[in-house]
Specification:
Length: 416
């Protein structure tokens, strides 16, 4: 007998959608017969029999750098010959090589080059994607990236949250002057991007190959003046104290965390900061130090899981494969992995009251899966059992048409 307790799974369930929202969800036999009646809800509604298939919230990829130009296949080869990710960065490759490619690209070219990555994610039931800037490293180019991210969301009918990551790496114009660059981020880049309404959150790379916790803290103080929510790349390659500093600033999330000291975990718990784990980067960089999973569980820090889709450390465009990696590499349970790409990912984006659960009042983003058990979503490597996707109360027709194998959401029986 499979234990489904961790999933809050409801057998023989019904979801009632009204406009763009879930009006009710629960066991079919207890479905209210009066919901929406005042609006003639049942007279003009369509019903769909999902044939007993699993329904989950739309998946949320809460940490990506999927807008970029070019590729870093050469670095992949160099690493296979023994160079480390940090060595390559110190030689001016790594993030800086993508910066050169992005600076040469137009918004349209960025959209065109990034679209296949987004399409691949959404083919697996992703309905919300966070996309960071961070490969422009000056105002115009960071803004260009954020515009490309928003345009992708509009074109693909997926909710895109844009994060300003100006403090991702030190651009060549500011070589050996990191504090001057931070001044520029604070005084010029962030205010301009914010004025254009392009910044949903602010992130920074706190790392020995990037910025210190004190430098990142200055960016966070500037963001706080605009009331912009915070996120932090912390403790990926070394323990720089970024996660604790981020928690002190009540950041939505601290991301990566392989080198987080377990003794610091209670500080994240107290702040309500989500731990976003990125097993794709752990895998691709052949990291061996595991994030402090036991301490995160013990202190009940919400754990999200994301692709970190980027050209250097995680060229990963599958959230289902990311869930598999979270289980196989981090020993997370399949139920934790599913929570990591739904309810906890929503928290990491500050959207927990809108998306991430199948619950009355939430936006009707949901996925119907051709699986018997929810653990299959994390177990399979490369199979895509996504049968149909609804975003904001609408069936995603392109997805249903393009990616369905044996199920199409056509009106059927099941009227209450
Ligand atoms: N950590 C990461 O894993 C990505 N950025 C970051 O701060 C990697 C970005 C890249 O290598 O292009
Ligand atoms: Fe990242």
């Amino acid at each position: 007998m499979t234990d489904h307790s961790g999933y809050a799974l409801v057998k023989d369930a019904m979801v009632i959608v009204e406009d763009d929202r879930i009006a009710w969800a629960g066991p079919r036999e207890t479905a209210p017969d009066n919901i929406g009646l005042s609006k003639g809800f049942y007279s003009d509604t369509e019903t769909f029999d999902c044939g007993g298939r699993l329904i989950t919230p739309g998946l949320i990829d809460c940490h990506t750098h999927l807008v970029y130009a070019g590729n870093r296949a050469g670095e992949f080869e160099q690493r296979l010959e023994g160079a480390s990710y940090a060595d390559i960065a110190k030689r001016g490759g790594g993030i800086m090589s993508t910066v050169s490619a992005v600076r040469k690209a137009s918004v349209d070219s960025l959209v065109e080059q990034s679209a296949p990555r987004l399409a691949r994610l959404i083919s697996e039931g992703v309905t919300t994607v966070e996309i960071k800037s961070g490969y422009g490293l000056d105002s115009d180019n960071e803004i260009k990236m954020l515009k490309a991210a928003r345009q992708l969301g509009d074109e693909y009918g997926v909710r895109v949250r844009t994060t300003f990551l100006g403090a991702h790496a030190l651009p060549p114009e500011y070589a050996n002057r990191p504090d001057d660059y931070i001044d520029h981020v604070i005084n010029e880049m962030l205010p301009r991007a914010h004025d254009l309404g392009l910044v949903d959150a602010v992130d920074a790379f706190c790392e020995n190959i990037a910025f210190t916790a004190a430098q990142v803290e200055r960016v966070f103080e500037a963001a706080a003046k605009f009331s912009i929510p915070l996120k932090c790349h912390a403790e990926q390659l070394s323990d720089m104290g970024g996660a604790v500093m981020a928690a002190r600033h009540r950041a939505l999330s601290a991301d990566h965390l392989e080198y987080l000291n377990p003794d610091d975990v209670p500080i994240l718990a107290k702040a309500g900061t989500v731990a976003v784990l990125l097993p794709g980067a752990f895998y691709f960089l052949r990291e061996t130090k595991l994030p402090p999973l036991d301490a995160l569980r013990k202190f009940e820090v919400p754990i999200a899981v994301a692709s970190d889709c980027n050209p250097g450390s995680s060229p990963l465009t599958s959230l289902l494969l990311t869930m598999n990696m979270a289980c196989t590499l981090f020993r997370m349970t399949p139920a934790e992995a599913l929570a990591g790409v739904t309810v906890n990912a929503a928290r990491a984006l500050g959207l927990a009251d809108q998306i991430g659960t199948l619950q009355a009042g939430r936006i009707a983003d949901l996925v119907i899966w051709n699986v018997d058990e929810p653990a299959e979503l994390s177990m399979n490597i490369g199979l895509n059992p996504c049968a149909a996707v609804m975003t904001g109360g609408h069936w995603r027709s392109s997805s249903a048409a393009r990616f369905t194998n044996d199920f199409l959401p056509v009106p059927g029986s099941g009227h209450p």
